[in-house]
Structure formats: structure tokens, C-alpha cells
């Protein structure tokens, strides 16, 4: 279980968008997992089981804190996207831009992309975490990748402030 802590923390950060809340969610996940360890089925993937517990805990907390959800949406609308194009010298900016684009994806698509892409779960394991068929998970990841590519293309096509001068 200790080996999955970095992955749990990473997934929690994507769910909560807040480092402190993510740490609390990981702690809650571990407490719940230890309390329910007799429900873990041998031969299944521990990481997927823990992600399921974490996801369920997150949505339970979200339902209880509807006001907090409204505040998070207000903060999300207030965020101004970066207008600077990322370059090789500014890898940190590129990662930040990717993070901004990820938050523009619908929740279900972002969650699918994070589970399969960032957390390296198989489609089947990610589908178990989200309690959907594996085909649905594949479709969500595919749509998430397509939308992310569209958002990235839109971001890279920025109007120029001055027209180019042709010297002939």
C-alpha cells in the first residue's frame, strides 16, 4: 500500500485541485482502505481498489460540500489563461499550460485521461475505478485526447498584435 501513496496523492491532486485537500483525501482513503481491508479481493489490482475508494470518498465529500463546489467554480472562472506561447526554454510554462488545458476538459473526460494517462492504469482497471464498462473508459479517453488536442491547437493560434511587413 505504501508504494501506491505517490499515485494516490497525484490522483487526489487532480480531483481536488488543492494540495492540502489532496493530502486529506489520501489520508481518508488510507483510513477507509484499512477499515475495509477484508473486502479487498486477492488477485485484483490494489491500486485500482484504492483509486475506487479515493474516487468514492471524493464524490461523497463533494456532495456534502456543495457550497465549496460553488466556490471552486467561481475560482475557475476567475483564472485567466496564459497568453504566452510555450517554448523549449520554458518547459515549466508548457506544463502549466497543459494543466490549464486539462482543467478545461469535462470532469469525466479529465478523470479518465488522468487515470489511464498519468496514473498508468489499464482501461479495465480505470473502468472499475469509475464503475463503467471498459469500452466507455476507452471512449472517454479518446474524447479527452481529441478535446485536449483541439484546445491546444486553439491556444497555439493566437492573433498577432502587429501585421507582418513584406519587404520586397
Secondary-structure topology with pairs:
Layout: H1 5-16, H2 19-35, H3 46-64, H4 66-78, H5 91-104, H6 107-118, H7 123-130, H8 134-156
Helix pairs in contact: 1-2, 1-3, 2-3, 3-7, 6-8, 7-8
Structural write-up:
Helix 6 packs across helix 8. This protein is mostly helical and 168 residues long. The protein has helices spanning 5-16, 19-35, 46-64, 66-78, 91-104, 107-118, 123-130, 134-156. It is globular, with a radius of gyration of 19 Å. The protein is built from 8 helices and no strands. Residues 83-89 have low confidence and may be disordered.
Note the main attributes of this structure.
mainly alpha, globular, 168 residues
Distance between the termini: 68 Å
Major sheet: none
Residue runs with pLDDT of under 50 for 5 or more positions: 83-89
- Percentage of residues in DSSP E strands: under 5%
Instruction: Determine the number of helices (DSSP H or I, runs of at least 4 residues).
Output: 8
Write down how many β-strands occur, each being a DSSP E stretch of 2 or more residues: 0
SSE class? mainly alpha
Percent helix range = over 70%
**Which H/E pattern describes the elements?**
HHHHHHHH
Oligomer state equals single chain
Taking all Cα atoms into account, the compactness measure Rg is 19 Å
Mean pLDDT over all positions: 79
Shape: globular
Summarize the entry for a quick read.
Helices cover 70% and strands 0% of the residues.
Amino acid at each position: 500500500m505504501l508504494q501506491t501513496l505517490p499515485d494516490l496523492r497525484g490522483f487526489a491532486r487532480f480531483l481536488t485541485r488543492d494540495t492540502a485537500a489532496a493530502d486529506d483525501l489520501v489520508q481518508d482513503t488510507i483510513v477507509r482502505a484499512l477499515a475495509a481491508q477484508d473486502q479487498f479481493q486477492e488477485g485484483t489490482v490494489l491500486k485500482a481498489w484504492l483509486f475506487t475508494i479515493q474516487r468514492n470518498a471524493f464524490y461523497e465529500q463533494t456532495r456534502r460540500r456543495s457550497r465549496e463546489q460553488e466556490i471552486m467554480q467561481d475560482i475557475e472562472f476567475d483564472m485567466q489563461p496564459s497568453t504566452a506561447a510555450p517554448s523549449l526554454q520554458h518547459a515549466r510554462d508548457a506544463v502549466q499550460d497543459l494543466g490549464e488545458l486539462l482543467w478545461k476538459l469535462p470532469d469525466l473526460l479529465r478523470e479518465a485521461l488522468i487515470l489511464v494517462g498519468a496514473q498508468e492504469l489499464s482501461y479495465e482497471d480505470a473502468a472499475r475505478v469509475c464503475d463503467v464498462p471498459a469500452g466507455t473508459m476507452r471512449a472517454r479517453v479518446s474524447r479527452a485526447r481529441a478535446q485536449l488536442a483541439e484546445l491546444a491547437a486553439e491556444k497555439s493560434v493566437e492573433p498577432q498584435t502587429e501585421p507582418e511587413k513584406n519587404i520586397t
